[in-house]
Amino acid sequence: MQIVTTHKNTDFDALASMVAATILYPDVVPVLPRSINSNIKAFLSLHKDLFDMRSPEEVDLNQVRRLIVVDTNSWSRLDGMEVLRERKDLEIHLWDHHMEGSDIDANWRCEAATGATITLMVRQMMKENKVITPIQATLFLVGLYEDTGNLTFLSATAEDAHAAAYLLERKADLKVLQSILRPAYGEKQKNILFSLLRDADRIPIDGCHIGIAKAEIEGHVGNLAVVVQMYREILNVEAAFGIFSVNQGSKCIVIGRSEIESIDVGDIMRHLGGGGHSVAGSAMIRGMTLDEVEAKIKDLVRNAPSSSIMIRDLMSHPVVTVSSETFMAEVASILRRTGSTGMPVLDHGKLAGIISRRDFRKVRNEAQLNRSPVKAFMSSHVLTISPDKTPMQAVHIMVRHDIGRLPVVENDELVGIVTRSDLMLYFYNALPD
CB of 260 within 8 A of CB of 238? Predict the structure, then answer.
């Protein structure tokens, strides 16, 4: 007997990968964990006849000779499989896109840093020319889209996009997909969000701002991830964590969302016994109070490895500057010669302002251009950034304030400048080797 199973709190990538395993491994028995996401429960209630799932209690584990694990690489995240862990005669196959924290000693494994596990399995089905039905293709695409944020998460890869195209060719239904992935946001979710925002606090940690919110909930509340994402966006922080005490503190659900490389939510959740990706993750914790979980998250964020690319790696230096007494005609000449669209204004080594081509719109005629100093037209309120910030933090400042450059300042000294073009080059992988 061979079975396929996946992690607790099963999501669509996990469910899709289980169904894909039934195609790649004929006669495999899918064993669904007892704890599954509410949207999975709703989906299966409508498709019971198409996807025959067993519970751990319905399978005689003594008869199992091959275990196929999908979308996780940790024994602790499996449900009811403890008895198999010590079996020496058990053959284990593992399919997963989480590249760290594995404690499953598999005989065979397929692991790669794709946005979703189903991408790996679709790749194999393509190699073997497997036939899939439109509803299977739709389910696979739902799993892929959910785990990659419709191919917008940083973890998404070109192979994910290729798999999505293949599934669309196999008649994956986007209307069905939209109805499945449309997040429910009702009265319960709204009340929890308001509760989180009532005590909202932007916590500065190592140059970033994170939000950590705590709430007590009774019974089941679906789509808490949607609440945490909205909390992060409203609070305008780089990362947010929701800590939810369930049923008077018997357990805590932790959900995290991030949009910067230096805060890897998946890694943080693995330290808490859960899992996820760099931008999204969750964990279930027992035996810790809300305050203890909050302190643990803060400690993990502080000790997280820093981003490999910082502003100091992108900035231009030395910086071409002018003094506040420089005439505008000379500034125009410098801008043309250097191909720049703006430059800092420095007086006695201190940043006094910034002048850009946009400021030249204020000049009425050529006479004014020749006799007016920079200080008459420059912006004296200058936003700066330190060299140890991340590119994403620079983007936030530029977008929020509609500016095209940021002087880089360290210890009150101008050490460089980073422009919108520098960031575009970085985000589109055009940095030189």
Answer: yes
Tokens of 226: 């949607």
Domain positions in the chain are 2-181, 187-302, 311-427
Cβ within 8 Å of residue 132, ≥6 positions away? 23, 125, 140, 170
pLDDT one digit per residue (tens) for the chain, 433 residues: 999 999 998 999 999 999 999 999 999 999 999 988 878 887 887 776 788 899 999 999 999 999 999 999 999 999 999 999 989 999 999 999 987 778 999 999 999 999 999 999 999 999 999 999 999 999 999 999 999 989 988 789 999 999 999 999 999 999 888 878 766 667 888 888 998 998 788 888 766 789 999 988 877 777 788 889 889 989 888 899 999 988 777 788 999 998 877 788 888 998 898 887 778 888 988 888 888 999 999 989 887 765 567 888 889 888 999 999 999 999 999 999 988 888 999 998 899 999 988 888 888 888 888 889 999 999 889 999 999 888 878 887 887 887 888 999 999 899 999 988 888 777 655 444 3
Tokens 């100093």 belong to residue: 373
Task: Identify the architecture of domain 311-427 in CATH.
Answer: Roll (3.10)
Domain 187-302 has CATH 3.10.310.30: yes
**Smallest Cα–Cα separation from 39: which of 21, 59, 14?**
14
Domain 2-181 has CATH 3.90.1640.10: yes
